[in-house]
Amino acid sequence: KESSAASDVYKRQALGWLAEKGDHHQPFCLELGRALRDLTGEVVAPGDWHPEQVSDHLQVGFRITGDTSPDLVTKDLGAAQDKLADQVSRVLTSASTSRATSQATSWSFGEVPRRQNLRRGRTSAVGYPAVVDEGSSVGVKVLDSPTRQLMQHARGVRRLLVLTNPDPTNWVVAHLPNREKVALAHSPYADVPSLLADARLKAVDSLARERSGDLSGIRDKESYTQLAEAVRPEQADRMRQVVSTTALVLTHRLDVLQALERLPAGADARRDVEQQLENLVFGHFISATPDPWFNHVPRYVEAMTVRLQAWATGRARDDQHLAIIDEVEADYAELCDRQPEGPLAPEVEEIAFLIEELRVSLFAQRLRTAVPVSAKRVRQAIARLG
């Protein structure tokens, strides 16, 4: 409604405000809204902005070129970076001044720096070296971001601890009661040895993080050796604890599967619990479930049985609680959709376990929750990350 000249004045004033006072780490629209509020007194709510409606020719675009693949044209640089992460890592690794390492079973590759300046011809870049998990060995690769470095390096150090320390599996199996051995035979893993290998990986990871945090500081042979020596004497007992927790999860899982058979095939509660169980207990769920939440998984699965047992006499109440869960999970799904490809960041993943606690508070209150929780608290956690 303003004249063109007045509009230009507001534009210049807003740009000046952003340059002087704006927080460049925040979304542009939110900061522009703050500028307009300070300059004019008008409040523009975050939901009133629609940057997707800006004409294509006014939006920033990116063209990513390469010698061996067609050009990629996109407006979403983050998505392009995720899509090309492996390719970029290979290029960075090949450009590294140090020789690439693969199939190592001990710390035989010297110090791994946190950052490395790389140059190929006239092109320079910054790479982030990391020890990476290759399954039966480890390697050293140069990654394209500190976030990927942190995640991959922790997994690589964990794998190396498994490779260099003695295997306590036979001792653990010898000390299992028969009821736990029976439970381990009924799991989503391919076989019991696969489950036990994953339990050992979890035990080593848990001990290592207790002593060294996120493992980002393990960058040379000396610090690795100290960590390995600290983990070694406790890994058998910790693996025994992990296997016992897993056996309890699997025992409750059998109870849930039997209870599900008594519900009608089309019941919403049956559909919901089947999906919940699949999300919690799957192949490699042991090492994939972070601390401290892994020790709470038996309670989450037991809560499913409590819910199913009460369903026949409390369908209306179950439907009301399920509506709350569906709304919260829809909000969480939107948050996850906005994350980069690959494993979720710990703070995002934690919300999934808050939702599990919310389920316990709604469907199985007698089992009690590990933390104060409500639908409002979960939404606030999502909003903080969103």
Overview of this protein structure:
The model has no long low-confidence stretch (mean pLDDT 87). The two termini are 33 Å apart. This protein is flat. By secondary structure, the chain is an alpha+beta fold. Helix content is 58%, strand content 8%. It has 16 helices and six strands. The chain has a four-stranded antiparallel sheet.
- What portion of residues is helical? 55-70%
Mean pLDDT: 87
Q: What is the alpha-carbon Rg in Å?
A: 26 Å
Count of alpha and pi helical runs: 16
General form: flat
Query: What ranges have pLDDT less than 50 throughout 5 or more consecutive residues?
Result: none
Structural class: alpha+beta
List keywords for this structure.
alpha+beta; 4-stranded antiparallel beta sheet; 386 residues
Quick recap of the structure?
With 386 residues, the protein is α+β, with helices and mostly antiparallel strands. It is built from 16 helices and six strands. The protein has helices at 4-21, 28-40, 77-83, 85-95, 146-164, 169-174, 178-184, 192-212, 221-231, 235-260, 268-280, 285-288, 297-311, 315-337, 346-363, 375-385, and strands spanning 62-64, 72-74, 101-104, 116-120, 123-133, 138-143.
Helices, strands, pairings?
Elements: H1 4-21, H2 28-40, E1 62-64, E2 72-74, H3 77-83, H4 85-95, E3 101-104, E4 116-120, E5 123-133, E6 138-143, H5 146-164, H6 169-174, H7 178-184, H8 192-212, H9 221-231, H10 235-260, H11 268-280, H12 285-288, H13 297-311, H14 315-337, H15 346-363, H16 375-385
Antiparallel strand pairs: 1-2, 3-6, 4-5, 5-6
Helix pairs in contact: 1-2, 5-8, 7-10, 8-9, 8-10, 10-13, 11-13, 13-15, 14-15, 14-16, 15-16
